[in-house]
Design a protein that fits this description.
heterotrimer, A mainly alpha (365), B alpha/beta (283), C mainly alpha (348), A: 365 residues, mainly alpha, ABC transporter involved in vitamin B12 uptake, BtuC, globular, B: 283 residues, alpha/beta, six-stranded mixed beta sheet, four-stranded antiparallel beta sheet, 9 helices
Chain lengths: 365, 283, 348
Amino acid sequence: MTADVLTPTGACADPRAVAAEEPADLARVVRARRRPTRRVRLVIATLAVAAVAAVLVRVLLGDYVVALTDLLPILRGEALPDAPGASFIVMEAKVPRALLGLLAGLAFGAAGAMFQTTLRNPLASPDIIGISVGASAAAVIALTFLDAQGLWLPAAALVGAVAVGLLMHAVGRGTTLAGQRMVLVGIGVAALLSSVIQFVMTRTSIQDAQAALVWLTGSLARATWPVIGMLSVAVLVLAPLLAVCARWMRLAELGDDLSATLGAPAGRARLGLVVAVALAAVATSATGPIAFVAFLAGPIARRLCGGRPSLWAAALIGAVVVVLSDFAGDYLIPDVNLPVGVVTGALGAPLMLAVVVTAGRAGKA
Amino acid sequence: MTSTTFAPTPVDGTALRARDLTLSYDGRRVVEHLDLDVPAGRITVVVGPNGCGKSTLLRGLARLLRPTEGSVHLASDGAHDDVWSLRPKGFARHVALLPQSPPVPEGITVVDLVGRGRHPHRKLVRRWSRADDEAVTRAMRATGTIELAERPVDELSGGQRQRVWIALTLAQETDVVLLDEPTTYLDLAHQVDVLDLLRDLNRSRGTTVVMVLHDLNLAARYADHVVALRDGRLVGSGAPADLVDEEFVAQVFGLRSRVITDPVTGSPLVVPTSTHHQSGATS
Amino acid sequence: MSATQTAAREERVAPGEATLPGLAALLLALLVVLVMAVVASIVLGSTAIPLGDVVQVLTGHGDGVADSGIVEARVARTVVGVLVGAALAVAGAAMQGLTRNPLADPGLLGVNAGAGLAVVVAISVFGVGSLSGYVWWAMAGAGLAAVLVHALAGLAGGGSPLRLTLAGAAVAAGLASWSSGLLVSSKQSFDSFRFWQVGTIGGRGLDLVVTVLPFFAVGLVVVLLAVRRLNALALGDDLARGLGENVILARATVAVGVAVLCGASTALAGPIGFLGLVVPHVARSVVGPDHRRVIPVCLAAGPILLLAADIVGRLVARPSEVQAGIMTAVIGVPFFVVLVRRGRMASL
């Protein structure tokens, strides 16, 4: 339909049309469009290398150092004659922990960035607005009252996170400023669920309460192959979905009205949130809510990519941070094994304050 | 450059048609039983006092607010389709809306932002095409924003930024463009600048323009067709020279005034005689 | 959406501006209800005590009454409830006025988390082990957190309700993660803390009340004296300055008052959320936005709600109890959700 109104090659008799030849303008537009993309690609490639390096550090170094040359034979299942215990330590402790950290970090980072961009708020990550607390409350109740084991724990966490997500959606639906209302409801519900968790903790033995606390802090200690299997299936299924949603996310950034005007069906962008809720829930169920990874991965990625949000960069940053923090928690202080969440929490809190301040400044515009 | 002799492109028919249109927010009726024909290929300006439902009407026309009663029809290829029967992307290839102050995504460059306007023309799997680049270039040339291509949008001045938003809307390549107060927050020179730009687009491309304007004099100067609202109802519509007189200003704005002829453009010029509101309810 | 804004503006003027006699009658009615709540709080519980016995104990003739110990505990509990309820409600109203954020609440904005972190430090680093030992730590922590959130909000340029609430939630998350970091390696510390972190008005002796009482008094006086300033601040800093108000001084005064009230409440009862959110909103819906009316109503209504929450918490889980801090969250969150859903937040 545009063809008859608008002839393809600039038939606009615009009096202020620039004197330059159009091919020059076109070339300039193409160049300008590619420049930021190139930077984002470079950042993602670098981060991917960093993630692999972090996993290798986690597996090879530490109290029990494994030579890189020994790693491949161990992974292939060959016995090492000069180090009989190596295979067990690597395959049952080091590799699972590294892999769980990698997967959980990817999931938290991607989910956080998805929330922040879709809701257009750098503070609106799943760990602040109730999704993680929903998963935690359900898991803690399952852990202490129902003695949940194995895959029941992730299932409970998923139910909790989805329930909070649904409540947020229900409250936002059909109102103006739905996104903002959703965030606020999430915060309120998070406060209630924290109270529930605290209440549960007073009702159970100190052993159970302590176990729940460790879980609530976020820890990779329960890295077993079934958990890793579950999480990797979830990541493999949800990541492509997220890629599709990322395109809507680019529209969601423009605000509800403009994105609808550009043909994004109403509320479609929030589909990405559903995927993000699922990712965050599954990861939370496997490791507990690792403090601030979801919250900070997005802003860090944004900074690296020159101001543009990138889902993949955020995911990779999450992975690098979790794997390295876990390593630091194990070996930084001799004889003390800190759960990964303590490390990310301690490092993340000051960074978080910086994000709060800069976010507020930007919001003034 | 503000020549007065633009002859409206002779395009017949109606681009958008509202019938018995009622629009509500959170259960409160803002626009009631409104009949409206938006002439194709013309500039239509919606005027009215604060809170009369101007922006709401625009959102209703842009398929952003589902009518509680009545309907909006879009004329395309000789047929009139209810806008809610069209697919979102299909509608977005015909009608573009520029909201009043859309949020600027963080760190985005001008070229990237304008490119977002290509969304309705993209398929799920197809990559960015040369046609997209060309459309973006055209839109940026028409708005004079080529020179800003690599700049981050949040560093631009208000006037530049508004041009970039209009470029985004143009990159959508629709035959109808709706704009909600495109001159807000701009000084008088930039207001005239933006409105001249829109009129040039209308005259050169035949794009149907519908906009909400606050300033009645600017409305009378740039509109081919004025639509006046008060309390969510249509008070009058027609060519500014026929419509805008002292009685009209009193009826729509409750303002006593003299209406003279603008010495520059020949359009009606409203000069308030008193700031005292006539319609009783002084505040 | 100029239509929505105009309508909102019209409605803001409308809600029943109670006349002065009307306000007096309302306060009187609230006082009657408060007295009833106080009586109920002493009489009701896992074991109900006849009113006659209560009177005997209170008049010093309780030697023959078997439950005199329970009566004394319940009296202390009720006194704590009245003080904390009043303080939190007034602090909430002042906080909402100060930040111009209808969703401000000591719990949501991270003040409770600050008190929590301070208590954790006291327990795990300094080996403090008693309620009276926690008091100063909690007070300092709550006060510092209140200052931190206000400073952040100031640095961040004021910000919309959404931004401030999110900033508060983020601060709370940060403080809480430091707390768990300290607790996770020490089972003993956590065993003490897990009971403190659920706010309750029970189990505090009157001696503890006496220790904290001056802070309640100072906080209340500061906020009550600043009521007029709150009204000016409600118009926005620029307009308030135009009206001749010293904005910085006004803000600082109110902020200090709020911090002292929150600190004292948390020190006495532990973290209790949502009371400071709910009560001011109910008050405003009845008497309009004028702080000169809202604050007195909060003063009377806060204790009523907290005592009611506590009584219900005692009755639903007999012979055990659900702590008041849990009950206020259970009551407060649905209220909060309705507020968010209905609220005309033109500038979230």
